[in-house]
C-alpha cells in the first residue's frame, strides 16, 4: 500500500490474453481491495448484449492507466489482445509529456515486446511485485491530482499561453470562482471599461485595417491547427489505374472514394545541421552525412519524391520538407494514424495503422486528393513492434509488415510473400535491391541489410541510427526517419 492514499479514484484497464485469465482475474480481485483503484476487466464489466468492441475502446479511452499483462502466451498471441495493445499505444501518443499511461506487467518471465519497451515494466511474479505495482499506480494518481491544487496567480506582465494537447479531465478542473469580483466592484469598473473601449476606438493606431494589427498575426499562428480528416467511405475498389508516367490523374468528380484534403503550407528557417557523432568513414560502413530535427510530434514514415521528402506524423499530418529540413507544406492525413509512405510518379501512397488501409493520394499543388484505398493485410503479425512501410518498385507496391515483405497488385492482392527472420522497421528500393532496417539480436541492436527482390539477404551493416521508423532512397543516399530526427545516410 502507498504511504499516502490518493484521493483520486484511479481507473485501471487490464489488457490481457485469455490464456492469462486466471492470473489476471486474481489481480483484478486484489486491486479491488484498494479503495482508490477501480480496475476494469472485460468479464466483470461487459453486460450481455452490449457492443463489446465499442465498450472496450470506451474503457481504454476513459482509463487513467493501462496495465498490459504479459506472459509468453500473450506476447506470441495474435488477435484481440494485440488490437487492445495497439489502441493503448495510440492513446499513449497523445498524453502530455511525463504523463505515462501504460505499465507493462510481466505475469511470468517473458520478453517485453519492442513497442512496449519504452515504459518501465513490473515483474509481478517477484516477491515485492504487487507492492511495486501499487507504487507505480500511486505515482500516476498523484500526478493526476497535482493540477487541481496548483496555485493560480495573476501574471504581472502579458504572456502568450502555452499550447498543449488534450489534458486529463482532472487536470483541467481549475476553479475560477475566487477571481469573480463583487457587484460593487463591477459597478465601479464597468464605466471605466466602457470609456477605455470608446477611447481606443477613436484613436486606434492601426486604423480600420485589421491585418495591420500585429496581435492578429500572433493569434492567427497560435490558433492554426491541423484537423484530422477521416475517410468515411469503406468501399474497396476492384481496380486502380496506375499511370506509367508522372502525369496527373484526376479521380471522377463525385466519386465515393474521393475526398479533398487541403494543405496548410508552413515555412521555417534553415535548421543547423549537426553530424552524428562517432560514425565511421569506412567505405564498407553506413555513416550519417547530416541530420535535422523532424517537424511535428512523432514521425512515423518517410518518402522521396525526386526532389523533396515527405514525412507522416502521428498527429494526423503529412509534411513535405526539403533536404535541409525546411518545411514546405503540411497536409491533413485521411486517417489519424499515418505510417509508411512511398512515391509513385505524381502520387503519394500511405498506409494508416488505425484501420489498416493503404491510400493512394494525388498531389496537386497544395492539395492532396484521395483517389483510392484498400485494406492492408495484417496476416502473420504477432507480438513485438509493428512498424509498416511502403515502397514502389516498377509497377507494383511493396509493403513491409513486421516479419514479411509483400508485393501487391493494383487492387491490394498479395502477389509475393518474402518471409524475413527479423522485425522490419524500414524499407527502401534503390533500383536494384531493397534496403531493410531491422532488429538484430535485440530490439536495441538495429542493423540495415540489402535484400534482393527474391528475398535473399546480400549484406548487413551496423546502423548508425537506432529506433528507425522508415527508410527512403533519393538516388544516391539513404534517408532514415526516427520519431524526432531525420538522417541522410552515406552508403
Automatic annotation (TrEMBL):
User: InterPro entries of this UniProt entry?
Assistant: TIR_dom, Toll_tir_struct_dom_sf
Keywords from the named record: Membrane, Receptor, Transmembrane, Transmembrane helix
**Stored Pfam families:** TIR_2
Q: Does the keyword Secreted apply?
A: no
Q: Which residues form the TIR domain?
A: 8-141
Q: Name one GO biological process term.
A: signal transduction
State the source organism's domain of life. Bacteria
- Which SUPFAM superfamilies does the UniProt entry name for this protein? Toll/Interleukin receptor TIR domain, YWTD domain
The residue ranges crossing the membrane are: 185-203
* UniProt name for this protein: Toll/interleukin-1 receptor domain-containing protein
Record the organism.
Candidatus Chlorohelix allophototropha
Amino acid at each position: 500500500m502507498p504511504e499516502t492514499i490518493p484521493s483520486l479514484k484511479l481507473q485501471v484497464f487490464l489488457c490481457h490474453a485469455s490464456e492469462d485469465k486466471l492470473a489476471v482475474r486474481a489481480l483484478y480481485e486484489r486491486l479491488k481491495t484498494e479503495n482508490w483503484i477501480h480496475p476494469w476487466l472485460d468479464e466483470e464489466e461487459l453486460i450481455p448484449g452490449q457492443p463489446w468492441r465499442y465498450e472496450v475502446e470506451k474503457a481504454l479511452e476513459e482509463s487513467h492507466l493501462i496495465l498490459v499483462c504479459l506472459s509468453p502466451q500473450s506476447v506470441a498471441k495474435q488477435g484481440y489482445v494485440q488490437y487492445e495493445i495497439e489502441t493503448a499505444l495510440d492513446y499513449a501518443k497523445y498524453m502530455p509529456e511525463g504523463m505515462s499511461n501504460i505499465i507493462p506487467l510481466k505475469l511470468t518471465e517473458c520478453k517485453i515486446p519492442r513497442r512496449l519497451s519504452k515504459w518501465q515494466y513490473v515483474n509481478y511474479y517477484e516477491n515485492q511485485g504487487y507492492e511495486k505495482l501499487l507504487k507505480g499506480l500511486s505515482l500516476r494518481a498523484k500526478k493526476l491530482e497535482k493540477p487541481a491544487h496548483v496555485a493560480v496567480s495573476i501574471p504581472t506582465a502579458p504572456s502568450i499561453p502555452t499550447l498543449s494537447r488534450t489534458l486529463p479531465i482532472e487536470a483541467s478542473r481549475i476553479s475560477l470562482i475566487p477571481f469573480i469580483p463583487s457587484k460593487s466592484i463591477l459597478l465601479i469598473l464597468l464605466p471605466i471599461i466602457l470609456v477605455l473601449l470608446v477611447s481606443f476606438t477613436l484613436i486606434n493606431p492601426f486604423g480600420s485595417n485589421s491585418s495591420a494589427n500585429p496581435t492578429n498575426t500572433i493569434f492567427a499562428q497560435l490558433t492554426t491547427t491541423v484537423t484530422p480528416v477521416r475517410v468515411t467511405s469503406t468501399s474497396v475498389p476492384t481496380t486502380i489505374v496506375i499511370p506509367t508516367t508522372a502525369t496527373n490523374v484526376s479521380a471522377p468528380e463525385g466519386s465515393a472514394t474521393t475526398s479533398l484534403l487541403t494543405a496548410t503550407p508552413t515555412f521555417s528557417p534553415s535548421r543547423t545541421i549537426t553530424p552524428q557523432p562517432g560514425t565511421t568513414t569506412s567505405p564498407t560502413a553506413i555513416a550519417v552525412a547530416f541530420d535535422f530535427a523532424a517537424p511535428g510530434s512523432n514521425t512515423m514514415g518517410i518518402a522521396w519524391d525526386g526532389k523533396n521528402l515527405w514525412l507522416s506524423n502521428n498527429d494526423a499530418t503529412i509534411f513535405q520538407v526539403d533536404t535541409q529540413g525546411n518545411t514546405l507544406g503540411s497536409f491533413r492525413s485521411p486517417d489519424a494514424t499515418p505510417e509508411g509512405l512511398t512515391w509513385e510518379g505524381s502520387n503519394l501512397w500511405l498506409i494508416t495503422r488505425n484501420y489498416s488501409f493503404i491510400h493512394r493520394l494525388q498531389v496537386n499543388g497544395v492539395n492532396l486528393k484521395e483517389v483510392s484505398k484498400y485494406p492492408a493485410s495484417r496476416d502473420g503479425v504477432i507480438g513485438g513492434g509493428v512498424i509498416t512501410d511502403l515502397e514502389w518498385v516498377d509497377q507494383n507496391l511493396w509493403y513491409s509488415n513486421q516479419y514479411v515483405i509483400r508485393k501487391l497488385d493494383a487492387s491490394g492482392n498479395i502477389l509475393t510473400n518474402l518471409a524475413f527472420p527479423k522485425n522490419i522497421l524500414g524499407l527502401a528500393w534503390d533500383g536494384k535491391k531493397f534496403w531493410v532496417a531491422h532488429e538484430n539480436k535485440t530490439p536495441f541492436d538495429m542493423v540495415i541489410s540489402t535484400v534482393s527482390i527474391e528475398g535473399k539477404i546480400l549484406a548487413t551493416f551496423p546502423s548508425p541510427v537506432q529506433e528507425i521508423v522508415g527508410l527512403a532512397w533519393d538516388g544516391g543516399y539513404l534517408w532514415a526517419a526516427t520519431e524526432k530526427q531525420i538522417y541522410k545516410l552515406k552508403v
